[in-house]
Amino acid sequence: MEKNLENKTEKKINNPLKPGKKALANIDLINKPLSLTGAQIIVKALIEEGVDTIFGYPGGAILPFYDALFLQNKIHHILNRHEQASTHAAEGYARSTGKVGVITVTSGPGATNAITGLTDAYMDSIPLVCISGQVATSIIGTDGFQEADVTGLTRSCTKHNYLVKDVNDLGYIIHEAFHIARTNRPGPVLIDIPKDVQNAHGKYLGKPEEINRKSYKVLKRQVSIDHSQIDDAIELMKNAKKPIFYVGGGLINSGQKACELLRDLVKATNFPITQTLMGLGAFPTSDHHFLGMLGMHGTYEANMAMYDCDVMINLGARFDDRVTGRVAGFSPNSKKIHVDIDQCSINKIIQVDVGIVGDAENVLQAMLDKWQKLKNVNQDNTKEWWQKINKWRDIKSLSYENCSKTIKPEYAIERLNALTKEYQPFVSTDVGQHQMWSAQYITFDQPKKWLTSGGLGTMGYGVPSALGAQVANPKSLVICVSGDASFMMNMQELATLKQYNLPVKIFILNNRYMGMVRQWQELIYEKRESQSYMESLPDFVLLAQSFGILGIECDNVQNLDQKILQMVNHQGPVLFNCIVDKSENVFPMIPAGSAHNEILLGSQAKSYVTKDINAV
Amino acid sequence: MSPKTLTPFRNYPKIIINFKMSEIIKKHVIAVLIDNEFGALARVVELFSARGYNIETLCVAPVASDKKISRITITTYGTDKTIELICKLLQRIVPVHASAELTSSYGYIERELALVQIIGDNKLVEDAKKALGDIRCQLVDQEEDSWVFEIIGNSNEIENAITTLEKYGLATVSRTGIAAGFKGKKRLY
């Protein structure tokens, strides 16, 4: 007891930040050279990292930090209604800006709730820093209240994590965490900070000029690309008769410059290009070189071109199983070039002929320079290839049978795209059929506009990530395309949208099903619809109203355009319940375990194929 | 050199052949240089456990004079393909400086130390020593009829020694797991 009292008085003397309410506005943490508490060090280090927004949820073990946060005015805190939503919001923020997303959560359940989002960010290479409170050092390992072994739990879903045991290490660790999160292949980093470390006083030396961790070499901007490998790649490309670019999310992580270089290279080479789900937007999807997305629900022309090509240039994609299908049947006759910043990704799934480890920007610049110096490139090399591709294109694999009564989900997305394209909106999605239709029918001419959960496929990602993107881009139109099932996984975030008046437009394709589950059950499990039907759904309009936001419902084709415009023109957040055909399936589809040439087509496209068999 | 044909450990099922070469389960020795900090070893070990792989032996100790870097030597049984993947993923761990699969191409050397306790009289111990033959074996502790020897050799020799000593009053065994490195001039860094 006596000891406690002593601590309290000591705290009072040393703590420079115990102002009355009047002083609050004048607090400037940066200019206080005094010894700081751990909580103040966190705030100061975050400010020095340029953080202006964090997403989080307070709780017992992180209270010292939240108190320090209260006493400053440089960092804006967004209070989500669930920690999973905080992590997705930070992902949306990071993906739409290229900055590191920051999350603060409390110990135990706060941290475990954040794990889904951290895993999602790990799979999709999104830079995040998650600060989690932890029970006091003396209680760790004693089954304390709200205690969980967070560094243990997150070890396999973070790029790196820390448990801070000494307040004097805290500042450096935070800066190193940001460095690791944003460099090389980006990813989430977690810092677990016990409550007593947040309360203890310690030194803060400021942001180090350079973080130099010997075991972690940064590839970006380093002129260490293997030029002989690039020469080999150019040699293959020069002689290619049937080349294709296969581009992934790595390009978007590399940045705007890399995407511009890609455009130049595609233009210079006149090669066709396909993009993965995560890569959409790296290259304008309205350009005629673009064959559409590839993979399980990619277009016929993209998948056939991947199967048939003789040189494949993979830029920042990782041969995911949703892209390759059956590995043994994956593009059997091609020479493969793989550019990736992560050397582990090269030869991980598919053996390649040329592997280049480096940042896409550097590699593309070198490739472009070398290509432009080439002489005697025969422009006719790829002429036949383009003719073949155009025949595949004529099949129109994305065509669908429209209906004048019920709204076809593809039609709804097409109309949404047509009516909002001019605003160049950010589009986030949840996971399932609506995600694939969005990927297939929405135009992305800019990188960083497309927010989706690719690797982990997390239902509930859409609304919070749109929220994060809207926070980062307050003047832009942000649309979340969702499904009735996915939306309900994080619908508590409507309260967050309302609180900060974030005008996110949530567009639900409501078919009363977990559509993708039902589709697989129809195609693979003989239509046994086990647990995929939503027997009870809320009235989405009333639901929206109860949160104080606008709800719109549309169930007929005639009103669709007008109601979409009403949604877009509304100033605040909107929940749009679009009642669509219950039984529509996503096509084309490559069933799991099949090769690209074993693609299934929708009835429209199929009838075309039977009419003109020579086209295939 | 191609490593000597190594007999699997006693309790381990014999080599399983599934017709495909890549699916043959065999012994792999992996060396890792890693920052000497908490959590680092766990990250390495989880790469194996997450794939349902058991670590047969594990040997960790700091190797730099400032104790900042440790070397881990791991023996495991698995398919070439999975081990190759694990070795790739090792590079991704932030505190890992370098890693290599020693069994893959280059020749390698390995040593292990075992402390074995024998309960018995002078005669039994003399007989045991004779039975061990060439194996390097030294007395490190004795109290009444309890004798503790250190045995040094590759894992095969240790295996053989233990099998032999079972007939000569073997009471307890403590093994370090192997430490291993490349043959010749090649270094791990």
Question: What would you say this structure looks like, in words?
Answer:
The complex is a heterodimer of chains A (616) and B (189). Chain A is an alpha/beta fold and 616 residues long. Chain A folds into 3 domains: 2-202, Thiamin diphosphate (ThDP)-binding fold, Pyr/PP domains (Rossmann fold), CATH 3.40.50.970; 227-394, 3-Layer(aba) Sandwich (Rossmann fold); 409-579, 3-Layer(aba) Sandwich (Rossmann fold). Chain A has 24 helices and 20 strands. In chain A, the strands form 4 sheets. In chain A, strands 3-2-4-5-7-6 form a 6-stranded parallel sheet, sandwiched between helices. In chain A, helix 16 packs across helix 23 (557-569). The relative contact order of chain A is 0.10. The model of chain A is unreliable at 1-27 and 610-616 (pLDDT under 50). Chain B is an alpha+beta fold. Chain B folds into 2 domains: 21-105, ACT domain (Alpha-Beta Plaits, 2-Layer Sandwich); 109-179, ACT-like. Chain A, domain 2 (Alpha-Beta Plaits, 2-Layer Sandwich), CATH 3.30.70. Chain B contains 4 helices and 9 strands; from the N terminus they run E-H-E-E-H-E-E-H-E-E-H-E-E. In chain B, the strands form 2 sheets. In chain B, strands 5, 6, 7, 8 and 9 form a 5-stranded antiparallel sheet that branches. The longest helix of chain B has 13 residues, at 80-92. The radius of gyration of chain B is 18 Å and the shape is elongated. Mean pLDDT of chain B is 86; it is low at 1-19. At the A-B interface, strand 6 of A face helix 1 and helix 2 of B.
